[in-house]
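Morning run. Coffee first, then this:
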Amino acid sequence: MKRALAFLAGVCLAAAQACAEPAIDAVDRIVIPVSELGRAAGFYTGALSFVPVDAAEPPGVALRLGKETIELVQQPGRSLPRDSRSNDRWFQHLAIVVSDIDRAYAIVFRQGAAPISQGIQELPAWNPNAGGIRAVYFRDPDGHPLELIQFPPGKGDPRWQQKDRLFLGVDHSAIAVQDTKTSLAFYRGRLGLHVAGTSENWGIEQERLSSVPDAQIRITSLRAPAGLGVEFLQYLSPRDGRPAPSDTSPEDLWSEVIVMRVDCGDRRSEILRDPDGHTLLLQSH
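And here it is:
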């Protein structure tokens, strides 16, 4: 965690050689930059049932939900643009799995979440890979998009069918991409993640979920041997999603980081940008 925090605070990591062919063992965690650490941690623990997992000093804290970990890191950079949309290519969200989405969304709404979706949506049965999934998008206090998702029987990891807790864990981090083939060449061809599933979603439910009129989305889910998934969202319609600002800094609040564990021998860390500007941190273990 400390290495990731140092990077995000603007401190240079050791100048280590990059792995020629990195072997990703796990998508380990997501680092989320925030403007006020106490406020953000209060939201993720109070509204979403994350729990602290270490006693890290500011500017960061690690939180866990189920088997998954995120880091919140206080940063002084620019806020997310007020007019951010779900098809803008700086879009990135955590998909938080719940056992009762109606009850869970009522809690996060009471805790101050700002809605994106037009209410909870159930994807239609005609869509074989996504039908029956219920989901809703909203924003945390800094404007980061988040998703609550409830899987019907037979979809998703079997552990997402647990009923003993309301908030179960994090299934994936979804990122907007301009072109699925280009992103696959990076994540599958270069990093070795495998495709775990695909879907094309459209219709009124998808429009209301993403709050993007006429939305038609090509979805590609990828996995490493362990950890969170990474999900591509390519908007086939509309095609007016904006690229990430060319002057994006690690301190800007839209600069979330996907941290991956990699077997690199004694080589320590490598920072990468994917084709759409999303940041990855490869850490050897």
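The chain has one domain: 2-9+20-284. Good start to the day.
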